[in-house]
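Minutes, project check-in
Item: structure for the 421-residue chain
Input as provided by the requester:
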Amino acid sequence: MLMVMLSSCSVKKNVQSVSSVPVITNPYSAEELIHDSLLNTAHIGIALMDADKNQYLYQYQSNKYFIPASNMKIMTCYAAMKYLEDSLEGLRYDMDSTEGLIIKGTGDPSFLHPKFKQQKIYEFLKNHKPFLYLYNRNTYRFKPFGKGWTLDDYYEDYMNERSEFPIYGNDRNTFKRADSSIQFYNYAHDERKEYNGGFGLRSPIMIVPSTMDELNNGIPYFIRLINDTLGKQYMDVLYKFDFNKPSHVLYSQPTDSVLQYMMYNSDNFFAEQLLLMVSYKQLGQMSDTRMFDTLIATDYKGFPQKPRWADACGLSRYNLFTPEDIVYVLGKTKKDFAADRINAIYPAGNQGTLKGFYMNNSDAIHAKTGSMNGVFCISGYLTTKQHKHITFSVMVNNHQSKAELVRRKIESYLSKIIEQN
């Protein structure tokens, strides 16, 4: 009987000693977010890294693949920041004694775009005699639409066609400058039937190289729009010309102002065109697929997991990246470029696509969101109250909840990290 009592006292003592040991939890843990009923159908991946020590602070399924949506623009942004000059090449041109002025497109998305008031290329062409456009099929190795872009998005203004010489943002909408210095016309409805056989039931601003000769006697449609805007008579399209000799370059917009517009507005068209511009500059031709392969083999050869890269903007569900991949690129960006430049390009709290979010910590976050049906991702930079610098990526796929509710849950999680660390 005495032995039983001693044994009982011993067990009780041990229980008390165990319960007195404090439970140590990771201050960056996302358990509450992960197990929230709002996300019970979702796949979630999280990576938080101490940017100064290059050490992970927290990981949850961070090596798993997710559809990143517009977080793809983080990869595109880095490439543009590194390879494009301070100002965008808006036009390449040569003067030939017999042909006159010969121009070549560079992929610049800002030409006659209503968001950019300064239009140096327009002024140059307006004040020049009639010109020739050099159309070189060997230079342009891309299709108007990216891999995996869906038919459901065909009529939406966030899925404009890519082209070598964009005009009006290749958009269907009608634009008009406040000062009336440049008129923007809407050809989408009036001429849609005329080009039904070649352009489909979409804006005829679309450039389809394989059908140009048949439809317009070799005249790209954007040239007709330029002629209409400039009031000049079109001369001819030039298919063969030695453009390997030194040519003149005319610059259009400050590169960072265009990057900021892309990131703040999550503009898919700008992302696609900027990637083509990088490709043109680095490879001598506009090829999105070749540029993806080149970046993976060079600048991004340190990807923790090799991604599947389908487009530059994130419209495609073929894209597959991990949170660790995105944190890796964010780390490269932070290492290679000044903080002030990054902060100017990436939206802060209550700016761009973060409008209405992180209002109490607006200066403590600079990030890019990405969303589509069932997908929400946010990746970027945090500065905590204790001045810790964190690169992060939170990726949610296959959720069945309202997008804003998911965003608010993640906002609560990231705000707690900012305020308590």
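Outcome recorded: The first helix runs from residue 2 to 19.
No further action items on this chain.
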